[in-house]
Design a protein that fits this description.
Blueprint (H helix, E strand, L loop, with lengths): L8 E5 L6 H10 L3 E5 L2 H6 L2 E4 L5 H10 L2 H10 L4 E4 L1 H4 L2 E6 L2 E4 L4 E7 L7 E5 L19 E5 L1 E3 L15 E6 L3 E8 L2 E4 L7 H12 L3
């Protein structure tokens, strides 16, 4: 008798700020059962929750709160349920964002401030390489020379979370450079995130999404 492994259920959280259709197609391409919704129960009960984000930090936070997204993310993570943020969906996971001199509180899952990217050309738009840790699970099977697609004018420039308990796995932080070094991706327990768009990054991005789905 032949048995098949059930598809992992992934919800792309639709709070009004993100390329939800691109994310849906990319996840379906790598074998996930995908639904775009802001429904609380569906977002809570999915195997994985993907939080996209496009636009201003403050606007994304407002939209997320109106959809009760901050509660969903916090409750999922409290129960060890996987969440992945993309682009501004990664930025809002940090403590605060500063845009045009205005400071907005983020979700504070990680300490740190999202600030203007200091580079000759902004926004940072296009393909770039990254520096991933050797034992990264997110980048497993991805060539070191692989390029990923970025579109952003703000970034996190310092990583401030340290793990002192030897029984806990330290966060895996991936870096990229455009005028200055910035955080390009984070793997921290059930919470993963990328500043770049894996759903727009071809085969390399598809491998990343496959790696995430395999942890669900």
């Amino acid at each position: 008798m032949t048995t098949t492994t059930p598809q992992k259920k992934v919800v792309v959280f639709d709070y009004g700020f993100g390329n939800v259709r691109s994310a849906e197609r990319a996840l379906a391409r790598v074998g996930a059962d995908v639904e775009i919704t802001r429904d609380y129960d569906k977002a809570m009960n999915a195997d994985g929750l993907l939080v996209p984000g496009v636009g201003a930090f403050s606007a994304c936070m407002d939209g997320l709160k109106k959809a009760r997204g901050e509660w969903i993310i916090d409750r999922r993570l409290s129960g060890g349920r996987p969440v992945m943020g993309i682009c501004v969906g990664m930025q809002i996971l940090f403590a605060r964002g500063i845009e045009h001199g205005v400071e907005t509180e983020g979700l504070d899952e990680w300490p740190g401030t999202v600030g203007p990217l200091q580079a000759p050309v902004v926004p940072h738009m296009g393909w770039n390489t990254v520096e991933a840790p050797a034992d990264s699970r997110l980048f497993a099977g991805v060539d070191d020379a692989a390029r990923f697609y970025f579109v952003h004018s703000y970034a996190v420039h310092e990583w401030g979370l340290e793990v002192t308990n030897p029984a806990m796995r330290a966060p895996q932080v991936t870096w990229a450079e455009h005028g200055e070094r910035f955080v390009a991706a984070v793997e921290n327990g059930a919470l993963w995130a990328t500043q770049f768009h894996p759903e727009k990054s071809g085969d390399a991005g598809a491998q990343l999404l496959t790696n995430w789905i395999e942890t669900l």
